[in-house]
Amino acid sequence: xxxxxxxxxxxxxxxxxxxxxxxxxxxxxxxxxxxxxxxxxxxxxxxxxxxxxxxxxxxxxxxxxxxxxxxxxxxxxxxxxxxxxxxxxxxxxxxxxxxxxxxxxxxxxxxxxxxxxxxxxxxxxxxxxxxxxxxxxxxxxxxxxxxxxxxxxxxxxxxxxxxxxxxxxxxxxxxxxxxxxxxxxxxxxxxxxxxxxxxxxxxxxxxxxxxxxxxxxxxxxxxxxxxxxxxxxxxxxxxxxxxxxxxxxxxxxxxxxxxxxxxxxxxxxxxxxxxxxxxxxxxxxxxxxxxxxxxxxxxxxxxxxxxxxxxxxxxxxxxxxxxxxxxxxxxxxxxxxxxxxxxxxxxxxxxxxxxxxxxxxxxxxxxxxxxxxxxxxxxxxxxxxxxxxxxxxxxxxxxxxxxxxxxxxxxxxxxxxxxxxxxxxxxxxxxxxxxxxxxxxxxxxxxxxxxxxxxxxxxxxxxxxxxxxxxxxxxxxxxxxx
Amino acid sequence: xxxxxxxxxxxxxxxxxxxxxxxxxxxxxxxxxxxxxxxxxxxxxxxxxxxxxxxxxxxxxxxxxxxxxxxxxxxxxxxxxxxxxxxxxxxxxxxxxxxxxxxxxxxxxxxxxxxxxxxxxxxxxxxxxxxxxxxxxxxxxxxxxxxxxxxxxxxxxxxxxxxxxxxxxxxxxxxxxxxxxxxxxxxxxxxxxxxxxxxxxxxxxxxxxxxxxxxxxxxxxxxxxxxxxxxxxxxxxxxxxxxxxxxxxxxxxxxxxxxxxxxxxxxxxxxxxxxxxxxxxxxxxxxxxxxxxxxxxxxxxxxxxxxxxxxxxxxxxxxxxxxxxxxxxxxxxxxxxxxxxxxxxxxxxxxxxxxxxxxxxxxxxxxxxxxxxxxxxxxxxxxxxxxxxxxxxxxxxxxxxxxxxxxxxxxxxxxxxxxxxxxxxxxxxxxxxxxxxxxxxxxxxxxxxxxxxxxxxxxxxxxxx
Lengths: 482, 465
What we know:
The complex is a heterodimer. Chain A is α/β, with parallel strands linked by helices. Chain A has helices spanning 44-55, 78-84, 87-90, 102-119, 131-148, 166-173, 191-197, 220-229, 250-253, 262-265, 324-362, 383-389, 393-402, 430-449, 452-455, 468-473; strands at residues 123-125, 156-160, 177-181, 202-207, 233-238, 257-260, 280-282, 294-297, 302-305, 366-367, 378-381, 409-410, 419-422. Among the domains of chain A are: 3-55, no CATH class; 79-336, 3-Layer(aba) Sandwich (Aspartate Aminotransferase, domain 2). Chain A contains 16 helices and 13 strands. Chain A is globular and about 75 Å long. The model of chain A has no long low-confidence stretch (mean pLDDT 96). In chain B, strand 9 and strand 10 form a beta hairpin. The mean pLDDT of chain B is 95. Chain B has helices at residues 8-18, 48-61, 80-86, 89-92, 104-121, 133-147, 164-174, 223-232, 243-246, 320-323, 336-370, 398-407, 437-455; strands at residues 66-67, 125-126, 155-159, 180-184, 208-213, 236-241, 262-266, 282-286, 299-303, 309-313, 378-380, 390-394, 410-411, 414-415, 426-429. By secondary structure, chain B is an alpha/beta fold. Chain B folds into 3 domains: 8-61, no CATH class; 66-75 and 351-455, Aspartate Aminotransferase, domain 1; 80-345, Aspartate Aminotransferase, domain 2 (3-Layer(aba) Sandwich), CATH 3.40.640.10.
């Protein structure tokens, strides 16, 4: 039932708006709205109950194991929310002077400093609002760098064929052509193909390391050398930073620019699809191009760094400072982890992933890269099950929901057929991982004996499989009374 | 160890299962010379009580000044229930609803949100939101270039009276896509964008015209005339509308003869706290015929195998994970949690409630301005009608006046001289419904005193907090 269906004319939740409509006769009548916008008319309790009930129709980290590969669904500590939502932080207007924001700015400045250290970058701007905007920022800076040097003939961005879809989409948004680099059977980038592909047209390469295939790119230093010698720059997609947090700095691997997904690595909430935060870090040569605003410190007071201080900046990405409240949550998380905890993120993310991988292999599942270590994630391929039993990765995914587990990422990366990309994260206990393996084994048994139960799954959710074709053909994007 | 549940026994048993001697051995594929030895830039671990103390101090350090800035972020009352429900773990810690069957909560919220926004804006369709108002305008410009198939010029008319940070953001985002943003001046007396300023473009190929209602100065644009001009000249209309204003003013879908083609803007006034500028969300609505050109996530209603109603992400063929380099945008999230808050906010406040909040905010700002009637040094710059925000000429240098008032715990407005040199010592002021008569009196008393001091040659020294 929709909130609109609870609506009754004349009902309201008093006390949240003024009782009377103030006089607005100074506004010309022709500019005024003639009707009342058709929003629900409900009591406060009706609204609270309706949305509480809707929340209960969601899977979430707080309620279920959520091994969604490449998404780092780790525990979102409650302290991060509570202390980012203190009234002093919530009430601060973005354009209030820095003198009335020293507490907030101190948090932002210290976050910049911590991110510089863990990534090995010279400077950090916190302003990109999400991973995709961080990617855009990174590639726009690469472009600004080449342009500033008068090196404007560079027209191509290299992207491994295993890359996330945002990489090629971003390169296009920045006016570049995309050239794909193939991947070898063992999951590493094909260096010979890379050597063939680079040249004076190369603006840069976008890489994730560990890659989207769940393996560490072992010859990263070689890749950096090839691209740099061709005059290109290296862009690090921070999607998988959790795998190396406190272990390896992207700056040391040779990357010139990096974006981080704080909603993954720094445990800020995913919120049902945002807000994220995608800060960027850069090496010295890209520093002048960082997006504004940033936060500076003169030894005594914190201040904003704006276009006036950075005339070569690529500019602004949002009206104010990106998702400031998300950045506060990431700051709190980083302080709660501290140095010691930061080192341990990658340790235990990797331990959990390797344990789960081995257990699933022992249970008879096929790994996409059996000869490799898992990083913080790994890929199971159900190609054999598809062929022999006519059940798909989608069927397994939907059946897992019935067992109370959120499905792993399915059908990504595109290179591996019938794949499940599995990322347990460091915050899950061993028995949770064992429970997941048990569920997978039971589903495999069902696939062999009664495949229909998979094909018809899920059976226990508020709805069964939805008609996506109808959704796209008979568009119903907003409710209308009949 | 913070947030890590492993006991010594767990670690031992897990390593044994893997067949590794140590956790360290699991990193044997990473070249040794790449490994981090020290993390000196990260401080020691804090316990939650230590952290709590630090954050309480920092939040209190900034005081709770009385705020009279709007300029794109507006302080409105938010019912307590809004964020109580929004931060329930089931909303807060869920991912993008790819597994639709296990995400019906989030998906239905978005569908309800889309419905509410189409009604508020009188438009056909809404997406599930974008990052913020400024980036939504940038995306709207890109969308208009795709949607206006008759236009080849990629030329978009951008009034100078549109929020300066929105214009800056749009420049950043469309800069590498060969789009020409042409500035349209405002009328120095009225503060509006006169249709006459567009006359020089008649007969040219124009892709789109941006119209902000109200504009950055709070001034009401003649939206009907501007919209009709654009359509008569083959241009699409991109409306940038404050959603709170849209409850009271003619909504974008009813501008002129045909209505705006795309509406976008900042969703923050609908239940999102100021929070130093984010997270907010950008809304985007459009006419039916352009829906396949719209960026961002979109939720549709459909049925499951048993014919039950359900909700799912739809029109995904536009998006990066399918189309890769040919996608409409690289965006792969919305601002889900903020949309959840806004949806609950709109449900609780209702359409009539929104109108009363908008009207009270407008009346408060008007009352504030009227209180300066007897002070010849302070008064409105523009003579056209405004909505809930006003440009005041302050007869004294703002770089001394504003710090003096800030020292008095009063954030008196936004200094327009930063973005508009011709508006030196002009203040953009907004008094929403959250301000009382006493607040307005306090503002006027403090401003008169500080400006009086400054014009009398007495140096206005900021009081130290």
